[in-house]
Every structure is written in C-alpha cells, then in structure tokens.
Design a protein that fits this description.
Blueprint: H1 2-34, H2 56-64, H3 67-97, H4 104-113, H5 119-132, H6 140-143, H7 151-162, H8 166-174, H9 179-190, H10 192-207, H11 211-216, H12 225-236, H13 240-271
Length: about 280
C-alpha cells in the first residue's frame, strides 16, 4: 500500500511539473525574446536562450513609445476599479448573507443569473448611458461599473461570510452595535483574505482589459498598456524584442500583486464555498 501511494504521489508530482512547464513556456519565451538581439529574432530553429543578452531592449522600448504614460493610465484604471469592487461587493454580500429579509435568496439568484448574460448584450446600452453622461473618452466608464458590484465577487464574498459564526454578529447586536458598526468592525476584518483575492481578480481584469478602453477611449494619451502595446506594434514596426520587453514590464505589477496575495488566495480557497 505504501508503495502504491508513493507511485501515485510521484505521478501527481510529475503531472504538476509538466502542466507548470506548459503554462510557463509562453512567459519564458517572452522574457527570452525580450533579451535577444535583432538578428536572432527570426532564426530557425529558434533559440530559447539568446547567445547575447541585450538588456538595452528595455531602455529602447521605453524610449520608443510612451510606456510610462500608458503605465500610469493602467494604474489609474485598475486602482479605481479595485477600490470600487472592494467597496461595493462586500457590502452587497453582507446584506445577502448576514442580514435576514424577505426575498433575499431570490435577489441573490437573480444576481448570479447575470453572470450568464453575455457582455456583448449590455455593450451598446452601457455605451449609450455613458455617452449621454458625457463620459466617453474618460476613465469613468472603465471604473464606475465596479462601484455597482460584480456578481462573481459578490458570490465569493458571500460564501466566505456564510462560514463565519452567527454568534459574532448576535453578540455585537446585544452589545448595542449598529449594522454598520458590525460590518466595519467585525465582518470586514474577518474576510480580509477574500478581499485581497477580490482585489487581485479585479486588478488583473482591469489591467488586461482591451475591449473597454478600445470602445471608450479615443485620445491616445489616455490609453492603458493593454491598448498601448498593440499601438506600439502597428505604428513602430515589428521589433519583437522591444515589444516583448515592454510586455514583460507590463506584467510586473500583476506578478507583484500576486506574490503578496498568494497566502490569502490559499486561505480563501480553503474557506470559500463550504456553505451554500
């Protein structure tokens, strides 16, 4: 039995290593290409490790197009969207999990049903709304929707709220705490891992969003990196090493965010979804 368990463990480890290599291969290729000189870009068979490391590709990429302008715009959009998600989603989830009121389950399932609604269906009506509000070619259409909650994040936080003991909230009410005091002083500190994960997911979604900026932004000075990098490719030619250098720098904020959030990610996966 021990021998069989050891073989299964070895098989699982090898499988995980192979899957990791498959998923990491594009990332390594991006970094490798960003360090290649021009004459190695089109060699066949391609080289994974460049013979000459060209760190100057990064400085050339920054000088070749307004990288830091796009980077600043991406931070504004992603930061505003994260703030909106962290304000709205926990508040809605608290009302759908801790507070008891008639029709709560119906509202919750109605919110979940909107996940199945294709984004293309609401694209034109949403654009018309922001157009009537004179918000086209501003960052607001990319930030404001997060302040009205996202159904998946609401579901995620609600499931975490359901794992908390009801005695905590009842004790707070006995001590005379209002619902807002209970929410801010008891509920929010206990769901910190889930809030970090919501912030991470929203940051990645906003940072990599291409369609939203393409629809709402017309001024190139307001482009985020997701929309600016293709402009770099189309306008300045096909210098793939500099393009990959800019893409590598664009990935860094997401990696930093993930490194700090991975501990909370494991905690959130452990406790979320235990109750329905």
């Amino acid at each position: 039995m021990r021998r069989g368990a050891g073989i299964r463990t070895l098989f699982h480890v090898i499988s995980l290593i192979l899957v990791t290599i498959i998923y990491m291969a594009p990332f390594f290729w991006m970094i490798s290409t960003s360090l290649k000189p021009n004459y190695e870009l089109y060699e066949f068979p391609p080289k994974l490790i460049p013979s000459v490391v060209e760190f100057t590709n990064y400085s050339k990429a920054v000088q070749r197009f307004p990288f830091f302008v796009y980077f600043r715009n991406s931070l504004i959009i992603a930061g505003g969207a994260v703030l909106g998600a962290l304000i709205s989603c926990p508040l809605v989830a608290y009302g759908l999990s801790v507070l008891k009121w008639r029709g709560r389950e119906i509202v919750f399932y109605a919110i979940l049903a909107t996940i199945m609604l294709p984004s293309a269906v609401t694209l034109i009506p949403t654009f018309l709304i922001f157009s009537r509000l004179n918000m086209v070619n501003t960052f607001w259409p990319l930030i404001l929707p997060s302040f009205f909650g996202h159904p998946f994040y609401i579901f995620l936080v609600r499931q975490f709220f359901l794992t908390l003991p009801r005695d905590l909230f009842e004790a707070a009410k006995i001590d005379g705490a209002s619902e807002f005091q209970t929410y801010f002083k008891i509920a929010l500190p206990l769901i910190k891992p889930t809030l970090v994960i919501v912030g991470l997911f929203q940051f990645i979604a906003s940072w990599n969003d291409y369609l939203g900026p393409l629809i709402y932004l017309t001024d190139e000075k307001k482009y985020p990196l997701a929309l600016g990098l293709p402009q770099f490719l189309d306008r300045y030619g096909t210098l793939w090493n500099q393009m990959m250098a800019a893409a590598t720098m664009a990935v860094v904020p997401t990696l930093i965010f993930f490194v700090f959030a991975q501990k909370h990610l494991l905690e959130s996966i452990k406790f979320t979804g235990l109750k329905g």
